[in-house]
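Standup notes
- DV: blocked on the single-chain target, sequence here:
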Amino acid sequence: MIAESIVNISAAVISASTPLLFVAAGELVVERSGVLNLGVEGMMLMGAVAGFAVTLTTGSPILGIVAAAAAGAVMALAFAVLTLTLMANQVATGLALTIFGIGLSALLGSGFVGQPVPALPKLHLAGLSELPVIGPVLFGQDALVYLSVILTGGVAWFLKRTRPGMMLRAIGESAASAHSLGLPVIRVRYLATLFGGAAAGLGGAFLSLSYTPMWMEGMTSGRGWIALALVVFGSWRPWRVLAGAYLFGGVTILQLHAQGAFHLPAQVFSMAPYLATIAVLTIISAGPWRGRFNAPADLGKPFRPSV
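- DV (later): unblocked, structure below
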């Protein structure tokens, strides 16, 4: 009985953490390039509705996942054009795109409310999935769970081990210096922003195709904002972001179980993940180690190449 409870809770934590990990890993790449994209909540919602709609109409979850990534990338492209080409304020544009994504996803998804789709199938790894406790937890998840971890590892390898990754980091620290060395600042930032949008779309697809396989208006419930905080919590390091995503996923699940143990209004427990986010950011900002959490030097700063 105890082992079964551990398996169920652990699997639930992994599921709750996966959308956060997708969005945070993508946003980390965007911010390491010097761009601050606050529109990820809207991009998640567009990915969720696009992935659900395509899966429901075609019967193919693979096409749905591709459509979700494409929807997030299209939203990110709009953000990139406005901020990188037209030099609009990044904070205001990101907030506007979040509001736009909330409204547009509700409009597009109005005809799909209440229509379920089969959840993404769990992968079965012969000999591993049957292991007690760790088998169903680590080797009985769906493909998107493994993709989120692979994506995080790929981001870590890309940023640290590849020349394009070093270029991206250099641009995030000083776009003017990178441009003077001949690096294509705007092109790199465009590609990073598109990648971040696609990752946010995948996070949305996980919500509507696996976590709760149906479409509901506003189903992200602020996860995009938590993912933004996770990038800071992880000090712009991929593996720390992964640890933070699973930590906050655990808080989300534990508050659900706490509702049955304590006689308090459910709304109190629903606030727990967001209160934890505020508490962690406050500790990071005020603690003696805050210097270790410095953001990329050019984060959020506009850059126009000199002619």
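- Follow-up: The mean pLDDT is 89.
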